[in-house]
Write a structure and sequence with these properties.
CATH architecture of the largest domain in chain B: 3-Layer(aba) Sandwich
Strand content of chain B: 5-15%
Largest sheet of chain A: none
Radius of gyration of chain B: 18 Å
Oligomer: heterodimer
Structural class of chain B: alpha/beta
Number of strands of chain B: 8
Largest interface: A-B, 69 and 73 residues
Shape of chain B: globular
Number of helices of chain B: 11
CATH class of the largest domain in chain B: Alpha Beta
Number of domains of chain A: 3
Largest sheet of chain B: 4 strands, parallel
Bound molecules: iron/sulfur cluster
Order of helices and strands of chain A: HHHHHHHHHHHHHHHHHH
Strand order of the largest sheet of chain B: 2-1-3-4
Helix content of chain A: 55-70%
Radius of gyration of chain A: 28 Å
Distance between the termini of chain A: 100 Å
Structural class of chain A: mainly alpha
Chain lengths: 452, 261
C-alpha cells in the first residue's frame, strides 16, 4: 500500500467521522421541534420534490439567476458522480478505475462534466460579481453582515478552487496520456482539458506533470471533503435539505392558520358547547404559541436549516420594502441561530439550564425542562412581529418552500395569549369583538345598512 | 335597492331554502364606503334572481382579525358561535364580498367543525355571467383604463387570480396590469389586523407604495375585491391628490353599471 493510499484512507476516516457527527447535530436540532403533520398527501410531496427541489421551479420566476444557479447545481451533482471514481481510485491506488470498462461512455461523461464545470465557473464568477460589485439590494440587508456575507463568498471561492483542481488534474492527465505513461489509461481527446493541457502543460517533464496531476486530484478531493464538513455550518446546507424540506412542505392553502385544539376545547366548554372541563391548576396552564424554538414544529426548524439566505422573501415583503424592521429572512435565520444555541446548551448537560423548580438530584437536562432565561424574543423583536400583514408574499417567494409567516404568527400568539402583550392600538378592537361581535365599536345594528 | 333583503331567520324554515348565504362581514355592514359595495352586490344578486339571504343581527365578525393578531381565544369564541348559527340554519353555501371572511370561513372554520362551500363574490359573479343568469352589456367602460389590485387573501392565500380578470374583460374595460400582479401582487397594507393599528416606524406606508405603483399605469379606475384594500387605496389616492380623477371601486360596483335591465 502506497503512502498516498494510506493518507487517503486516513483522511476518508477522519472526514467520515466528523461529517457523521455534524450531520447528527443537525438532526438533533431539528428534533427540538414539536410534532408536525402538515403534509398528508404523498403524491403532492413527491410532486414538490420533483418540481421545486429538482426542477427549481420557484427559481424560474427570474430567468437569468435561475439558469446560472441551475448550472452550478447540475455541475455540482455531476461532480459527485466523478467523486465515486475518485474514492475508488484513492482506496485502490488505481487510476481512472472506470475508464477501461466503460468504453466510449467514459470520455463522454468526463466531457459532459468538463463542459458543465466551465459553465459553472462562469456562473460562479458572475455570482461573485453580483454580490460584491453590483451589491444587489437583497444581499445588503442588516442581517447580511459578518458571517452570512463571508459564507456566501467562501463557497463561491471554494467552487472556483474545485474547478481549478478538476482542470489541473485532467489537463496534466491528458499530457501524461500523450506521453504514453503506463499508469494513465487513454481516455482519448478531452474537449476542454486536452486544450488546457496543450496550452499550459505541454513540454513539461514527467515528474512535473505527475506532480500537477496529483495536486489537482488532491485539491479536488479536499475541496469536496471540505464542502461536506462545511455544509452544516453554512447556508449551503440547502443543497441537501431542500429535498426533505420540499417533501414535507405545508399542503394546506397558505391562508390557513394552524388550529389550537387546546384553546378550542376551553372555549367550547366556556360556551357550553362541550362538557365543563376540569379547571386547570396553574402549573398545568400550557404556554400558548411559541416563545422558543422548542414550541415550534420540527418543520419550522427544518425550514430554518434549509434557508439559503437568498432574501427573495425579504425583497417582496411589503413591510420591509417600506422601511420597517421586519425581514422574513432574518426571522428564519434567528430561528436557526437560536436552535444552535439551545442545542449547544443542552449538549453541555449543565444543570444550571434546568428550570429552577424542576431541578433535583437525578434530573437530567432535556428540551422540556430547559430554561436559559433567553428565547426567540431576544432575537426577534415585537416591532418586527407586528409589522407583518400576513400577506404570504414571503411564502410564495421562497425557492425552497420555507414558511416565515408561520413563525411570526406563532410568536404573536405567545405574546398575546401568554403575556397579554401586543400593540395598544388593538385593545379597542379586541374589546369591541368581545362585547359586540364586530371589529369596530359602533352603535348601529349590524343590519342597519338594509333599507326598509 | 329595489327589493327587500331576506333574512335567514325569516326564510330558513320555508320550503325553498335560499341557495346561498351572503356573509356581509364587519366592513360591509358598518363601513359607509363598504356598505355601498354590499348594496351593489345585493343588486347583482337580485338581478340574477338567485335566492339568497343574510344573517343580519345573527352574524358576528368571523374572528379573522383576532386570529391573525394572535388572539386565538377571541377567534374561537366568535368562530364557534358563528358555526352554531350557520349550522342551526343548515347553511351549506356561503358567498362573501370580503376575502378575509372568505379565507377564514373556507380554510379556518373546518378545523372547528364548520364545513361549508365558500366562494368569493367575484367567483359567484363570474359563474352567474358564465351560465347566463346575470346579463351585462359591455360599453360602459369603453376606453377606460382599469387596473386591478389582487388582494392577498383572494390571491396568494387562495390562488384566485382569474375570476376578477374575467369579469373585467366581460365589461370590456381596458385592463392594464401593475408591475407586481397575481402571485407577485403587493399587499395594500391592511391584512394581518394591520388595518386596526398604526404602522411600525418606517419610510413609507404600504398603501402609498401600492398607490404609486397603481398610478404608474395611468388608470381611470382601480378595481379591488376587498373592503380593506378599498379603504387603503382610497386613502392612498387622497394622499396623492388623485381622488378627483381616479376612482377606486369594487368589482361589483363596476358590474352594476353594465347590468342589462
Ligand atoms: S407575510 Fe409578513 S413577513 Fe411575509 S412578506 Fe408578508 S408582511 Fe412580510
Ligand atoms: S426563507 Fe426562503 S426566500 Fe427567504 S432567504 Fe430563506 S431561502 Fe430565501
Amino acid at each position: 500500500m502506497s503512502i498516498e493510499q494510506i493518507l487517503f484512507l486516513l483522511l476518508l476516516l477522519v472526514v467520515g467521522l466528523k461529517a457523521y457527527r455534524s450531520y447528527s447535530e443537525i438532526w438533533a436540532k431539528i428534533q427540538l421541534g414539536k410534532p408536525y403533520d402538515g403534509s398528508p398527501d404523498q403524491s403532492k410531496r413527491w410532486k414538490n420534490v420533483l418540481l421545486v427541489a429538482f426542477g427549481q421551479k420557484k427559481m424560474f420566476k427570474n430567468l437569468l439567476p435561475a439558469i446560472f444557479h441551475l448550472t452550478i447545481y447540475v455541475a455540482f451533482m455531476m461532480t459527485q458522480i466523478e467523486l465515486i471514481e475518485i474514492v475508488i481510485d484513492g482506496v485502490s491506488g488505481h487510476h481512472r478505475t472506470f475508464a477501461s470498462g466503460l468504453g466510449w461512455f467514459y470520455p463522454m461523461i468526463i466531457n459532459l462534466i468538463e463542459c458543465l464545470s466551465i459553465l459553472a465557473f462562469i456562473a460562479t464568477v458572475i455570482f461573485l460579481w453580483r454580490r460584491n460589485v453590483l451589491k444587489i439590494s437583497r444581499f445588503e440587508k442588516a442581517e447580511m453582515v459578518g458571517w452570512p456575507k463571508r459564507d456566501a463568498n467562501l463557497i463561491l471561492l471554494g467552487e472556483i478552487l474545485l474547478i481549478i483542481g478538476v482542470f489541473t488534474m485532467n489537463g496534466a492527465d491528458t499530457q501524461l496520456q500523450t506521453l504514453g505513461v503506463a499508469h494513465y489509461p487513454d481516455t482519448g481527446k478531452l474537449l476542454i482539458s486536452s486544450s488546457i493541457g496543450d496550452t499550459l502543460f505541454s513540454g513539461l517533464d514527467l515528474k512535473t506533470l505527475i506532480f500537477l496531476e496529483r495536486s489537482g486530484w488532491w485539491l479536488h478531493l479536499t475541496m469536496v471533503f471540505g464542502f461536506l464538513l462545511y455544509l452544516p455550518v453554512s447556508k449551503h446546507l440547502h443543497i441537501l435539505l431542500a429535498f426533505p424540506n420540499t417533501y414535507w412542505a405545508r399542503q394546506k392553502p397558505p391562508g390557513t392558520m394552524q388550529n389550537m385544539p387546546e384553546v378550542m376545547e376551553a372555549v367550547k366548554s366556556m360556551l357550553g358547547l362541550a362538557p365543563e372541563a376540569a379547571p386547570m391548576t396553574s402549573a398545568e396552564i400550557p404556554e400558548f404559541g411559541a416563545k422558543d424554538v422548542t414550541a415550534l414544529t420540527w418543520k419550522n426548524i427544518l425550514d430554518a436549516y434549509t434557508c439559503t439566505e437568498c432574501g427573495r422573501c425579504t425583497a417582496v415583503c411589503p413591510a420591509n420594502i417600506t422601511g420597517k424592521k421586519l425581514s422574513p429572512r432574518k426571522v428564519i435565520m434567528d430561528v436557526r441561530d437560536r436552535a444552535d444555541e439551545v442545542r449547544e446548551k443542552l449538549r453541555s448537560a449543565n444543570s444550571n439550564w434546568i428550570k429552577e423548580e424542576l431541578r433535583g438530584t437525578d434530573v437530567q437536562l432535556n428540551k422540556d425542562n430547559f430554561e436559559d432565561g433567553q428565547s426567540l424574543f431576544d432575537r426577534i423583536t415585537r416591532e418586527e412581529l407586528y409589522a407583518c400583514t400576513s400577506c404570504n408574499a414571503c411564502v410564495e417567494a421562497c425557492p425552497v418552500l420555507i414558511n416565515p409567516l408561520e413563525v411570526i404568527l406563532e410568536m404573536r400568539r405567545y405574546d398575546i395569549l401568554t403575556l397579554a402583550g401586543g400593540p395598544q392600538d388593538w385593545l379597542p378592537m379586541f374589546n369591541s369583538l368581545e362585547n359586540s361581535g364586530s371589529v369596530w365599536q359602533v352603535s348601529a345594528a349590524r343590519d342597519a345598512w338594509i333599507d326598509r | 335597492m329595489d327589493k327587500k333583503v331576506p333574512l335567514m331567520a325569516d326564510v330558513a324554515g320555508q320550503s325553498d331554502r335560499p341557495e346561498i348565504l351572503f356573509w356581509v362581514g364587519c366592513a360591509g355592514s358598518f363601513d359607509p364606503r363598504a356598505q355601498k359595495v354590499t348594496k351593489a352586490f345585493v343588486q347583482i344578486l337580485n338581478a340574477s334572481k338567485i335566492s339568497y339571504a343574510v344573517l343580519g343581527k345573527e352574524e358576528q365578525c368571523t374572528g379573522d382579525p383576532a386570529r391573525r393578531a394572535g388572539n386565538e381565544f377571541l377567534f374561537q369564541m366568535l368562530a364557534l358561535q358563528n358555526i352554531q348559527t350557520l349550522n342551526t340554519h343548515n347553511v351549506s353555501k356561503i358567498v362573501t364580498t370580503c376575502p378575509h371572511c372568505f379565507n377564514v370561513l373556507k380554510n379556518d372554520y373546518p378545523a372547528l367543525g364548520g364545513h361549508y362551500e365558500v366562494i368569493h363574490h367575484t367567483q359567484l359573479i363570474q359563474s352567474l355571467l358564465d351560465d347566463g343568469r346575470l346579463k351585462i352589456a359591455g360599453g360602459s367602460f369603453t376606453g377606460k383604463k382599469i387596473t386591478y389590485h389582487d388582494s392577498c387573501y383572494l390571491g396568494r392565500a387562495n390562488g384566485v387570480y382569474e375570476a376578477p380578470r374575467e369579469i373585467l374583460s366581460q365589461i370590456e374595460g381596458d385592463l392594464v396590469e401593475m408591475e407586481r400582479n397575481r402571485t407577485n401582487g403587493l399587499c395594500c397594507g391592511a391584512g394581518g389586523a394591520q388595518m386596526f393599528k398604526e404602522d411600525e416606524p418606517g419610510q413609507k406606508r404600504i398603501n402609498i407604495e401600492r398607490t404609486e405603483e397603481a398610478l404608474k399605469t395611468n388608470p381611470d379606475i382601480i378595481a379591488v375585491n376587498c373592503p380593506f384594500c378599498l379603504t387603503m387605496l382610497t386613502d392612498g389616492m387622497t394622499a396623492s391628490n388623485k381622488s378627483e380623477e381616479i376612482m377606486v371601486l369594487d368589482l361589483s360596483e363596476l358590474i352594476i353599471q353594465s347590468i342589462k335591465a
